[in-house]
Design brief:
There is one protein chain. The chain is of the alpha/beta class. It has one domain (9-220): 3-Layer(aba) Sandwich (Rossmann fold), CATH 3.40.50. The protein contains ten helices and seven strands. The protein has helices at 29-41, 58-71, 86-95, 116-123, 125-140, 146-149, 164-168, 170-175, 202-205, 211-220; strands at 9-11, 17-22, 46-49, 79-84, 102-109, 155-159, 192-196. The chain has a seven-stranded mixed beta sheet with strand order 1-3-2-4-5-6-7. Strand 4, helix 3 and strand 5 (102-109) form a beta-alpha-beta unit. Helix 2 packs across helix 3 and helix 4 (116-123) packs antiparallel against helix 5. The longest helix is centred in the middle third of the chain and has 16 residues, at 125-140. The radius of gyration is 17 Å and the shape is globular. The termini are far apart.
């Protein structure tokens, strides 16, 4: 379970393709409401949002997903697309070879929030342990798995703003070096990218606002007409 655990969500209508969303630690009820709104804007996709994060660690989270995949007969879909928030990428890295019908992959990236596990486990370890168990410590001990996931040539959804937590620990964040905003510095290989005006809290409650670009990427491997300027720049960023 995440920091604000909610029950797994399954919205099905007999479609041939599905979207499996691996949420992160901050996903909660506002995120669930947004997921339901997203489904209304994407009626051609069945939507699965499992409460998969296990405080006992990444391995148990993988085992939960394996069981969830089988329990919900996800093998019957022609393609199961994946959207991974930050924590989800660490779990998918160990599970991706077990999805024979995997479709396109979208990754939520954040130069700010990807530093959060390392900071909170170092600065407030007892709180991190109490609320999130071994899971967050295992994230903190590993680099973001961008190289293994690059084989999917994912679409990158890049948050451009810091959360309240990262503002609170802004000095710690700065000590870790400059933030890397260009998409090429985040992922070895990718199909497309976009910057969104959200932080790692608000992106959950605004997930439905990304429905158009997400659907475009799932259909074509391109987000379409979206924002590709890194924060603080005016020139269009290019991935060609």
């Amino acid at each position: 379970m995440g920091l604000f655990p909610v029950r797994s969500l399954e919205l099905k209508n007999g479609n041939r393709e599905a979207l499996l969303v691996l949420t992160g630690i901050g996903y909660g009820f506002s995120g669930m409401r947004s997921m339901k709104k997203f489904r209304k804007q994407a009626p051609d996709l069945d939507l699965f949002v499992p409460d998969y994060i296990q405080n006992s660690g990444i391995d148990d989270s993988v085992r939960f997903l394996e069981s969830y995949y089988n329990r919900n007969d996800l093998h019957r879909y022609d393609r199961v697309h994946l959207f991974c928030f930050i924590a989800g990428a660490y779990v998918l890295e160990r599970w991706m070879d077990q999805i024979p019908n995997a479709g396109r992959l979208l990754l939520d990236r954040s130069p700010y929030q990807e530093r959060a596990p390392s900071i909170v486990t170092r600065r407030i370890p007892w709180v991190a342990r109490l609320l999130l168990g071994d899971f967050v410590f295992q994230l903190a001990a590993r680099e973001y798995p961008q190289k293994p996931l690059s084989r999917f040539k994912p679409g990158l959804v890049i948050e451009s703003r810091p959360t309240t937590l990262m503002k609170l620990f802004s000095r710690d964040c700065k000590k870790m070096g400059p933030l890397k905003w260009p998409a090429r510095e985040m992922q070895d290989e990718f199909a497309d990218f976009q910057y969104v005006p959200f932080n790692h809290d608000s992106i959950y409650s605004n997930f439905h606002t990304l429905a158009q670009s997400i659907r475009a990427f799932l259909q074509s491997g391109n987000f379409g007409e979206i924002y590709r300027n890194p924060p603080g720049t005016t020139d269009e960023a290019s991935h060609t």
